[in-house]
Design goal:
This protein is of the alpha/beta class. It has helices at residues 41-48, 70-74, 92-102, 108-118, 134-146, 164-177, 190-196, 214-221, 237-241, 264-277, 292-300; strands spanning 3-12, 15-25, 30-34, 56-61, 64-65, 77-80, 152-156, 182-186, 199-204, 207-213, 225-231, 246-253, 256-261, 282-288. It is built from 11 helices and 14 strands.
Length: 301
């Protein structure tokens, strides 16, 4: 695996920011790291990257113990912190040359141009950082994190403050990374996590409350679904309550009903049969699947 965290803890005085957490992330995975504000996400990321020292536990990055050889571990990591630190008076290409030099790369010019193309900065590379929009500043931060070809990429709120078009562009960059890298990223935009990740880790009050493949997590945490049906005619609520495997029926109005069930397919078939038997016309029939937001609220409330 590329990241292995074992029994990790961090205290700030009397406050336990991270409480004995453990997880592993393998090469090729894009894992979403979620949690409410103050849950311990950024603290955990800073410990993995070696910017904070853990009070307890071990962190291995590509087999290197961060506590024993932090310089070697950092050489394997590309990190974009939540507060993207840039030098406002430097030009984009100049800044990336500087970062490449810090990493002691031999092919500085070649690697800089490669990263500029990778994150879509070609038309902005001649500008000063202060002249860039928030979206392009984020691209510069990602380029700086990737310029030394790290094995592990850690992104803290990479799409924060971006418009929808910029979010999609950054999403595509992150997706492309998973081919040969390990990606751990946090975001408050849960739709982004659903679009990019197969697996999520949710932390709450310093402890991990969920760690699973997204589809399994949504099914296990929120096993029920909602079937919404709309009839042309007026329908009595009691008629729908008699359908087998219906847990709850909510009447939106006498034509539209929301049905909670653990067997959505069976209920849909029963609704169609009910309509035929009672000479009713179904105008609309759909199943609302549980979103990551539903799952997040369930495990952190």
């Amino acid at each position: 695996m590329s990241i292995k965290v074992h029994q990790l803890s961090k205290n700030y005085g009397a406050q336990k920011a991270v409480n004995n957490i453990s997880f592993e992330i393998n090469k090729g995975e894009i894992v979403g790291f979620l949690g409410p504000n103050g849950a311990g996400k950024s603290t955990t990321m800073k410990m993995i990257t070696g910017y904070l020292v853990a009070d307890e536990g071990t962190i291995l990055v590509d087999g290197i113990d961060v506590a024993k050889d932090v310089v070697a571990a950092k050489s394997k990591i590309g990190y974009l912190p939540e507060a993207n630190p840039l030098y406002a008076d430097m030009y984009v290409r100049e800044y990336l040359h500087f970062v490449a030099g810090v990493h002691q790369l031999k092919n500085i010019k070649q690697q800089t141009e490669k990263m500029i193309a990778t994150v879509g900065l070609t038309n902005e590379a001649h500008k000063k950082m202060s002249q860039l929009s928030k979206g392009y500043k984020q691209r510069v931060g990602i380029a700086a994190a990737l310029i030394h070809e790290p094995e592990v990429v850690i992104l803290d709120e990479p799409t924060s403050g971006l418009d929808p078009n910029q979010i999609i562009e950054i999403r595509n960059v992150i997706k492309a990374l998973s081919v040969n890298k390990t990606v751990l990223f946090s975001s408050h935009i849960l739709q982004e996590v659903e679009a990019i990740c197969d697996r999520v880790i949710i932390i709450n009050k310093g402890s991990i409350v969920a760690d699973d493949q997204l589809q399994h997590l949504q099914k296990n945490i929120q096993p029920t679904q909602v079937v919404q049906v709309q009839f042309e005619e007026l329908v009595e609520l009691t008629m729908l309550q008699t359908i087998p495997q219906v847990l709850h029926v909510e009447m939106v109005n006498p034509h539209i009903f929301k049905i909670e069930t653990a067997a959505a397919d069976a209920v849909r078939k029963q609704l169609l049969q009910l309509a035929v038997t009672n000479n009713l016309n179904i105008v609309a029939l759909q199943t609302d699947t549980n979103s990551l937001e539903d799952t997040f609220r369930a495990v952190t409330k």
